[in-house]
Q: What sequence folds into this?
């Protein structure tokens, strides 16, 4: 398990030292008057930057990526949908990118792992996309959500047992990150021992820092070994199902799609868990709405997906032809960045940001169009089940610091809490150290699922609805 000191060392290594040219970039306007999407100014307040750009340029703004490479930031809700739904105008193939074709993207560019063409569905359209996407969809469909929830519940209790005796914890590094990766390694059929290293590598990759390329190589090599093992000895897991799919994916194609699924699912779900827990712990109206039955936990998760989507932006559209978008002339080969977070708060779709959006899944958190995230329901299941299990075990959970003391790490792609310190009544571990539980294919498990048996004399109290626990907590406060 990655401890806080290890995380601090990783953060220190990824931050340019004072005086380093990289630490000065992103301050003020860049070449051509375009605004930089990287550096301290952009990362300290990305939401504020989006609104300033929207006010100045409208729903599409000229910006600069790392290294002052020009791009277009799509801020409008409707414009985001337009881009995602018209691949004939806005392609997923980065080989069209003018900057890449003309050699202006250096070999150590931090975004290289996400803008280099690879044999997977995120980089193609048409028939090839349908072939790869079909294999992924069919393989994900073989996962049983009840089995996933059972495994997540067990993993959540295992993680809680590791810190429940102290009365305090950091729910980012001691819970959300590791719960997500424990679930994902199980789904793809990977030994759980890889989980801590994959947490760090995935974070570095999404941050696009100096460790991004090395982290990507570690993930690729780990998955290459996994694919080779499953090719020789297939089992009931996502990797084996991709390998045996009638689309006949090559080992490299399977490896690349596993990388996409693993990294995207980790970043999305870990951030979603942290943001939802923060809202439950800090927003009195939100908490009361949950306790009063006006909002369910799935409603709460969707509200967070609207307000704080796990990915701020998606880099991955290139103009296939000269075209126009919201009055801006887009040239063939131009790069477009989808600002999902900005689109979600566009007044065209949300005139009142304080109004709850119960049951509405029309947000952009998982992008849109034919390339909309295929595993979003798995992410919802992991987040919802994990949060429910945590709050059931620790019903008096409370923030250990003032909300204003919470800190975030922002990058072009995402914004995540660096820590979520909490306090609660200390208790004894309730479960045995849990072993990995196989997630079988659909129909192969019992409808009812339960956590592993507790040691004699140390069993947990009878299960009580989290809503009742939360109501009791609110009455005591």
A:
């Amino acid at each position: 398990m990655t401890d806080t000191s290890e995380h601090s060392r990783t953060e220190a290594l990824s931050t340019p030292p004072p005086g380093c040219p990289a630490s000065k970039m992103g301050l003020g306007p860049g070449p051509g008057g375009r605004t930089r999407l990287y550096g301290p100014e952009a990362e300290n307040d990305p939401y504020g930057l989006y609104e300033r750009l929207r006010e100045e340029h409208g729903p599409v703004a000229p910006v600069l990526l790392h290294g002052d490479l020009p791009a277009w930031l799509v801020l409008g809700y409707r414009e985001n949908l337009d881009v995602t739904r018209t691949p004939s105008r806005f392609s997923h193939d980065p080989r069209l990118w003018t900057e890449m074709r003309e050699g202006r993207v250096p070999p150590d560019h931090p975004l290289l792992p996400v803008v280099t063409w690879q044999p997977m569905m995120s980089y193609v359209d048409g028939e090839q996309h349908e072939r790869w996407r079909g294999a992924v969809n069919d393989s994900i469909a073989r996962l049983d959500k009840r089995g996933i929830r059972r495994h997540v519940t067990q993993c959540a209790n295992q993680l809680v047992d590791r810190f429940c005796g102290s009365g305090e914890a950091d729910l980012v590094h001691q819970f959300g990150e590791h719960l997500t990766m424990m679930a994902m390694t199980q789904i793809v059929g990977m030994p759980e021992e890889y989980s801590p290293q994959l947490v760090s590598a995935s974070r570095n990759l999404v941050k696009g820092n100096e460790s991004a390329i090395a982290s990507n190589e570690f993930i690729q090599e780990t998955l290459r070994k996994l694919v080779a093992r499953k090719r020789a000895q297939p089992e009931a897991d996502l990797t084996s199902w991709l390998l045996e799919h009638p689309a006949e994916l090559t080992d490299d194609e399977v490896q690349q799609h596993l990388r996409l699924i693993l990294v995207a699912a980790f970043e999305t779900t870990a951030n979603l868990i942290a943001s939802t827990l923060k809202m439950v712990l800090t927003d009195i109206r939100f908490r009361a709405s949950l306790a009063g039955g006006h909002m369910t936990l799935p409603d709460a998760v969707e509200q967070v997906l609207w307000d704080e989507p796990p990915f701020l932006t998606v880099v991955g559209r290139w103009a296939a032809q000269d075209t126009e978008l919201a009055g801006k002339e887009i040239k063939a080969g131009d790069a477009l960045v989808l600002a999902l977070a900005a689109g979600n708060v566009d007044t065209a779709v949300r005139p009142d940001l304080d109004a709850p959006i119960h049951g509405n899944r029309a947000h952009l958190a998982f992008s849109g169009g034919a390339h909309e995230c295929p595993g979003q329901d798995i992410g919802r299941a992991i987040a919802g089940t994990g949060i429910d299990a945590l709050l059931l075990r620790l019903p008096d959970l409370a923030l250990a610091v003032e909300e204003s003391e919470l800190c975030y790490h922002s990058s072009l792609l995402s914004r995540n809490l660096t820590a979520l310190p909490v306090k609660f009544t200390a208790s004894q571990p309730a479960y045995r150290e849990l072993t990995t539980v196989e997630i079988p294919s659909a129909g192969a498990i019992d409808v009812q699922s339960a956590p592993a048996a507790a040691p004699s004399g140390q069993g947990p109290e009878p299960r009580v609805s989290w809503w009742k626990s939360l109501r009791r907590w609110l009455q005591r406060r």
